[in-house]
Write a structure and sequence with these properties.
Blueprint lengths: L4 E5 L3 H12 L5 E5 L3 H17 L5 E4 L11 E4 L11 H22 L4 E4 L4 H12 L6 E3 L2 H16 L6 E2 L2 E2 L7 E2 L5 E2 L2 E2 L6 H12 L1 H9 L6 H16 L4 E9 L5 E12 L2 E5 L6 H24 L3
Parallel strand pairs: 1-2, 1-4, 2-3, 4-5, 5-6
Antiparallel strand pairs: 7-10, 8-9, 10-11, 12-13, 13-14
Length: 314
């Protein structure tokens, strides 16, 4: 933890919950919060600092006044972005959030060009692509958080179906963060037993469907807003793994350079994380059906990045 600094840009529900997790669990020594809503930043800085005091944590939480406050950040987490609103097309949302990413990346390039960027903003895979292209950073330095969240949702639904195994379920989800994500049933276990041995095909199909709609279910129940506890905790796992240089394997969104048969496209795959960000992509052996589903997911991501190439970067 010594002399480790994490900056969080976007202090909505996800960003503030992430800061709370990092501060109260002593995961880094300094946290900087940045948002265009200065009063919200000040409020969250006070509240989270006081939470850290209650937890006997020596993590310092500060509000950023300008991009200069990002200097020497080991990691910058980007949660900034707008949600899709009624009447807004998918392309509208994509281009609006790409503009936000661009303004954020400009500060990062100027004040902490050696940092590792974790993107949480949606549409996730497209925003990772935009951050890579705008920053010019190598792919190991720009990573998206999604697969950890989707995998956690799958584990939850497995537990709900079984009624046992809490804390002993391991799941993996690959592909883009959307309807075409690919839950890897054959790599998912409960108490080290494959779920195919304890669940029927029908039960597994239901779990897969619920996993794909896990975020939407929460959106519908909340009516305003979306999930934030699970996304924030998932992001904190990435931060911890990078700062601790521990080589943990997590499914994350990265630029592929030939892995899984794909090039120059961003998608969620299992990776090892270390102090340099992406250490390596871990290639699981996929079935023919999984390869087909993964290719379909890749094509969905390409639809979004093609819009960026034609309407934003052109």
């Amino acid at each position: 933890m010594s002399n480790t600094k994490v900056s969080i840009i976007g202090v909505g529900n996800v960003g503030s919950t992430l800061a709370y997790n990092l501060a109260t669990n002593k995961i880094c020594s300094k946290i900087v919060l940045k948002d265009i809503r200065e009063n919200i930043v000040e409020a969250m800085t006070l509240d989270i600092s006081q939470s850290a005091s209650a937890a006997n944590s020596n993590t310092i939480v500060q509000a950023a006044k300008s991009g200069k406050d990002l200097v020497d950040s080991n990691i910058v987490v980007i949660t900034a972005g707008v949600p899709r609103k009624p009447g807004m097309s998918r392309d509208d949302l994509l281009l609006i959030n790409a503009k936000i990413i661009k303004s954020v990346i400009e500060d990062i390039k100027e004040y902490c060009p050696n940092t590792i960027i974790i993107v949480v903003s949606n549409p996730l895979d497209a925003m990772v692509y935009a951050a890579l292209k705008i920053s010019g950073f190598k792919r190991n330095k720009v990573i998206g958080m999604a697969g950890i969240l989707d995998s956690a949702r799958m584990s939850h639904f497995i537990h709900t179906k079984l009624g046992y195994g809490a804390g002993k379920i391991k799941s993996y989800v690959m592909g883009g963060h959307g309807d075409d994500m690919v839950p890897l049933v054959n790599y998912s276990t409960v108490e080290n037993s494959p779920i195919t041995e304890v669940l029927s095909k029908e039960e597994i199909a239901d779990i897969v469907d619920k996993t794909k709609n896990g975020g939407l279910q929460i959106v519908k129940l909340l009516e305003i807003g979306s999930a934030y506890y699970a996304p924030a905790h998932s992001t904190s796992l990435m931060v911890k793994s990078i700062l601790n240089n521990d080589g943990e394997i997590y499914p994350c969104s990265v630029m592929l350079e030939g892995e899984y048969g794909h090039q120059d496209v961003v998608a969620g795959v299992p990776i090892k994380l270390d102090s340099n960000g992406l250490k390596e992509v871990v290639e699981f052996e996929l079935t023919a059906e999984q390869k087909e589903l993964f290719n379909k997911s890749i094509n969905s991501v390409k639809e979004l990045t093609n819009v960026l190439d034609n309407k934003f970067f052109n």
